[in-house]
């Protein structure tokens, strides 16, 4: 399987997971809200510290985003493009975000697809600069006793979300969801299956965003870009012959701005920089 070399020492632990009971969320961002601030407000109102959100309605004006790019300084394995600032209102088509904190303040890491005056585009939203123009309905899973916290990662030299316990700890029921991070060069499907096995999860929904080192689809298509940005359109874990089996359908953008969609091939899609996930169990192994 493909490997990408990062500048720092390889961390011994390749996946991280924290369990907490999920709180189902639904709220609306209003015109004039900044996307990040509006989502932070919705989480705070529900007593949640972090989690995952999705939205596919409304628009923003102004709006800014970046796409993956070759590293400019040699200190990272990949980097970001120059900022794109489309003219006029930008319609949200499908967006997934991980909610947590950075430097003690709420922070949103969001990938998505949006309709601009230049056509359909995809990338990494610069949420603090994006202002809601038409209402955006947000759904998601929030957590009161766990979150994602942005910390410096010595392996990649990026500041990345890491799942952490937070607040007053409450007992986690067996059906608690998992807040997850997968590190570079791990196949994302196999990592999910391993985590489900260790937590006794037979079937689950999977939500999240991340990056892959090239993308190999189940139908044979390939995206030859060592840096990508993607979101999970539909993620499922089911029990096959008594073991969890992951299937992920994604939307992904490469370093040229090309967008591809489809189910990825299990066992042949290594993480580039990071993958941030929420696993929502549907059934446990007996």
What count of helical segments does DSSP give?
Answer: 2
CATH architecture of the largest domain: 2-Layer Sandwich
Mean pLDDT: 97
CATH topology heading of the largest domain:
60s Ribosomal Protein L30, Chain: A
Helix-strand category: mainly beta
Number of strands: 22
SSE ordering: EEHEEEEEEEEEEEEEHEEEEEEE
Distance between the termini: 33 Å
- As a percent range, the share of strand residues is over 45%
Protein name: DNA-binding protein
Keywords: DNA-binding
Organism: Microvirga brassicacearum
InterPro entries: PPC_dom
Task: Summarize this structure briefly.
It is built from two helices and 22 strands. The chain has 286 residues and is mainly beta. The protein folds into two domains: 121 residues, 2-Layer Sandwich (60s Ribosomal Protein L30, Chain: A); 109 residues, 60s Ribosomal Protein L30, Chain: A, CATH 3.30.1330.80.
What characteristics describe this protein?
286 residues; mainly beta; 60s Ribosomal Protein L30, Chain: A; 11-stranded mixed beta sheet; 7-stranded antiparallel beta sheet; 2 helices; 22 strands
Task: Characterise the protein shown here.
Residues 19-164, 171-286 form the PPC domain. Pfam families: PCC. GO terms for molecular function: DNA binding. The protein has 286 residues and is mainly beta. It has two domains: 23-143, Hypothetical protein, similar to alpha- acetolactate decarboxylase, domain 2 (60s Ribosomal Protein L30, Chain: A), CATH 3.30.1330; 176-284, Hypothetical protein, similar to alpha- acetolactate decarboxylase, domain 2 (60s Ribosomal Protein L30, Chain: A), CATH 3.30.1330. Helix content is 8%, strand content 52%. The chain contains two helices and 22 strands. It has helices spanning 35-45, 188-198; strands at 15-20, 23-29, 50-55, 59-60, 65-66, 68-69, 79-80, 90-102, 105-116, 119-125, 132-134, 136-143, 146-152, 159-165, 177-182, 201-212, 215-216, 222-223, 229-240, 243-253, 259-263, 271-284. The strands form four sheets. Strands 2, 3, 4, 5, 8, 9, 10, 11, 12, 13 and 14 form an eleven-stranded mixed sheet that branches. Strands 1-15-22-16-19-20-21 form a seven-stranded antiparallel sheet, with helices on one face. A hairpin with a 2-residue loop joins strand 8 (90-102) and strand 9 (105-116). The radius of gyration is 18 Å and the shape is globular. The chain starts with 14 loop residues before the first strand and ends with a strand. The model has no long low-confidence stretch (mean pLDDT 97).
């Amino acid at each position: 399987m493909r490997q990408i070399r990062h500048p720092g020492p390889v961390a011994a632990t390749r996946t991280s997971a924290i369990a907490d009971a999920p709180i189902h969320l639904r709220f609306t961002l209003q015109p004039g809200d900044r996307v990040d601030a509006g989502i932070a407000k919705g989480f705070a109102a529900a007593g949640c510290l972090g989690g995952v959100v999705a939205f596919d309605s409304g628009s923003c004006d102004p709006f800014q985003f970046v796409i993956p790019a070759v590293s400019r300084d040699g200190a990272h394995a990949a980097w970001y493009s120059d900022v794109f600032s489309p003219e006029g209102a930008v319609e949200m088509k499908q967006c997934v975000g991980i909610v947590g904190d950075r430097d003690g303040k709420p922070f949103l890491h969001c990938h998505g697809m949006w309709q601009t005056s230049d056509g359909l585009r995809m990338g990494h939203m610069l949420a603090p600069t994006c202002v809601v123009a038409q209402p955006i309905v947000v759904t998601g899973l929030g957590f009161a006793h766990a979150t994602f916290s942005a910390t410096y990662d010595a392996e990649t030299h990026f500041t990345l979300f890491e799942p952490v316990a937070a607040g007053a700890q409450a007992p986690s029921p067996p059906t608690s969801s998992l807040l997850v991070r997968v590190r570079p060069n791990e196949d994302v499907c196999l990592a999910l299956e391993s985590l489900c096995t260790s937590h006794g999860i037979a079937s689950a929904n999977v939500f999240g965003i991340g990056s892959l080192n090239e993308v190999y689809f189940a139908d044979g298509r390939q995206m030859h870009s060592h840096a990508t940005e993607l979101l999970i359109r539909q993620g499922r874990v089911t029990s096959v012959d008594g073991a969890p089996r992951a299937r992920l359908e994604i939307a992904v953008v490469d370093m040229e701005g090309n967008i591809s969609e489809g189910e990825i091939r299990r066992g042949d899609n290594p993480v580039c920089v990071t993958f941030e996930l929420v696993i929502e169990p549907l059934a446990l192994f007996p």
